[in-house]
Design a protein that fits this description.
There is one protein chain. The protein is of the alpha+beta class and 210 residues long. It has a single domain, classed as Glutaredoxin (3-Layer(aba) Sandwich), CATH 3.40.30. α3 packs antiparallel against α4 and α3 crosses α7. The N terminus is likely disordered.
């Protein structure tokens, strides 16, 4: 090797190493996940935030739910999971407000999966506050209290913020996962629901410096 070629190689090697430094284990930026142009603030302190944007009416979100449930049983200790109901239009806003109303009432764990099941497995048309309230009543939820909470200022504020964050995360559909406010991925991007879980874990490890 000529001397000038040797020195050129020494110069290029650090650049090449840096070019690949954005990858997460076997997964590559721009392939299984995207690096967000403008990172967003997180809510989880020292923990790595794993945020899922979803819509109750989305069949793909429903398909992903069992994988999320299984992942939560074995998630990395340094990761914290957050759901964010995405809002693209008025009908999505109804489900976002239902989510935050249930959260405010302390019944989210009681109604979250049943609402998914009712919409997709049972094909029920639950797309208005009243029909959702009727359904929640079958689960033992006070119908009037739900509707009151649904219309509250606090719930409306949270739902409006969810709409704002949906835009900020730059997603075009759901389900979508944002890791630590920096990386955006999905089952479609990763290749499957199972592979998405692997990508999430790899990105959590990357953010943990492992």
């Amino acid at each position: 090797m000529k001397l000038r070629h040797y020195w050129l190689l020494l110069i290029l090697l650090p650049c090449l190493a840096f070019a690949g430094s954005n990858d997460a284990g076997p997964f590559k930026a721009g392939v299984e996940y995207d690096v967000m142009a403008k990172p967003q603030p997180t809510q989880t302190g020292d923990k790595v935030e794993v945020l899922e944007l979803f819509w109750y009416g989305c069949p793909h979100c429903y398909k992903l739910e069992p994988y999320i449930e299984q992942w939560l049983e074995h998630k990395p200790a340094n990761a914290t999971y957050i759901r964010l109901p995405a809002v693209f239009n008025a009908s999505w806003m109804i489900h976002a407000k239902a989510y935050y109303a249930a959260e405010a009432m302390g019944i989210l764990d009681k109604v979250h999966r049943p609402l998914f099941d009712a919409l997709h497995a049972q094909k029920r048309k639950l797309y208005t506050p009243e029909t959702i309230a009727d359904f929640f009543a079958t689960l033992g939820v006070d119908r009037a209290e739900f509707l009151k909470t649904y219309k509250s200022f606090a719930v409306t504020t949270k739902a409006n913020r969810a709409k704002q964050m949906t835009r900020r995360y730059g997603i075009t559909g759901v389900p979508a996962v944002i890791v630590n406010g920096k990386y955006r991925t999905s089952a479609h991007k990763a290749g499957s629901e199972a592979k998405l879980m692997q990508v999430i874990n790899a990105l959590v490890a990357k953010e943990s410096g492992k």
